[in-house]
Amino acid sequence: MQPVPDPITSSTAAPSWMPQLVLDMGRPAFHASLLQGLHDSVGTAHISQLRYERDGRIGDARCASLVDQSMIERTTDTYVNRLHQRDPNYALVRASGRQPAPGVQLITVPREDIHDAEYRRLLFDRPGFACKVSLISTQDDATCYINLYFSRPVSTQVTALLLHNAPMLVALAQRHGELASQEAAAELPAEFLALSTREREVAELLWQGLSAKEVARALGLSPTTVLTYKTRLFEKVRVATLKEFLLKAPARQSLPASAGTAAGAFRAR
Questions:
Q1: What is the CB neighbour count within 10 angstroms for residue 174?
Q2: pLDDT digits 0-9 by tens, 178-196
Q3: Are residues 83 and 65 in the same domain?
Q4: Model pTM above 0.85
Q5: How many domains does the chain have?
Q6: In terms of domains, do 139 and 196 share one?
Q7: How far apart are alpha carbons 153 and 139 in whole angstroms?
Q8: 93 near 64, Cβ under 8 Å?
Q9: CB 123 within 8 A of CB 134
Q10: What is the CATH number of the domain that holds 237?
Q11: 37 and 71, same structural domain?
């Protein structure tokens, strides 16, 4: 006889996988643990967590998947850098950032309800997803946007269970982000923590390979102003050339929230 999955229940008892998830908060394995628990409970095949800033930018994006990982990484990168504004929930995410609603919003989006053909092909058809359930919650100056993807239609029972447990799932994900940011900050050289908010934004874009003109366009500044920030950056980080500055970039991460945007597996370019 096949073992029966341990479902997320609507009772006060926590799922059996919850203790391990709590232990993994702040660690790289957090989203993999969360996905495994949700897969065993309700059949989730892929999870993404994004943090939207008040101005609509993605400050952090992370994912875990049971689907082909290399394909998922490319797909997530495409979403972050090109398609996120075409997400059917994007208007709700922006509205939540401007006027936060209490609690957590839950939205179910079946594949057939997505009318953007490219979005549907790249983010649903190619990885084989039939539906996604999205959780939206705004806290302080950022909106937490969690997407749970399923390879088959989601039943009303699963939706009800996720709605009941949504506040707990979002709270754990947000706390994980805070802990991961603190850990990343502790690993950064002190000179990076001394940068101003705008200097950190310029640094992020330079690390991503943008030219001064491209940085200016991205931030709505003049090229001359960007060059001024670039000069200050080099002085504070104690480098003389762009090559030296790029070599000092933290490996595969953004600056943490306490020093700019949070560390993430994917960054908006």
A1: 18
A2: 888 776 666 566 667 677 7
A3: yes
A4: no
A5: 2
A6: no
A7: 30
A8: no
A9: no
A10: 1.10.10.10
A11: yes
**Residue 64 burial (CB count, 10 A):** 22
Residue 163 falls within a domain, yes or no? yes
If you search the block for the tokens 């705008």, which residue do you land on? Answer: 198
Chain centre to alpha carbon of residue 160? 24
**150-172 tens-digit pLDDT:** 999 999 999 999 999 999 999 99
Q: How many residues does the chain have?
A: 269
Cα gap 195→237, rounded to integer Å: 9
Can you tell me the distance from the alpha carbon of 151 to that of 87, in angstroms, rounded to the nearest whole number?
18
Residue span of the structural domain in which 193 resides: 189-249
Whose structure tokens read 């998830």?
21
Dig out the tokens for 8 from the structure: 């997320």
Looking at residue 197, its amino acid is T
Question: Is 64 within 8 Å of 31 (Cβ atoms)?
Answer: yes
Sign of CA dihedral 149, 150, 153, 158: negative
Claim to verify: residue 178 and residue 193 sit in the same structural domain: no
Q: Provide the sign of the torsion angle of the four alpha carbons 184, 189, 193, 197, taken in this order.
A: negative
1 in a structural domain? no
User: Per-residue b/e over 24-47, b at no fewer than 16 CB within 10 Å?
Assistant: bbbeeebbbbbbbbbbbbbebbbb
In this structure, the answer to whether residues 53 and 65 fall within a common structural domain is yes
Within 8 A by CB and 6+ apart from 223, the residues are 212, 213, 216
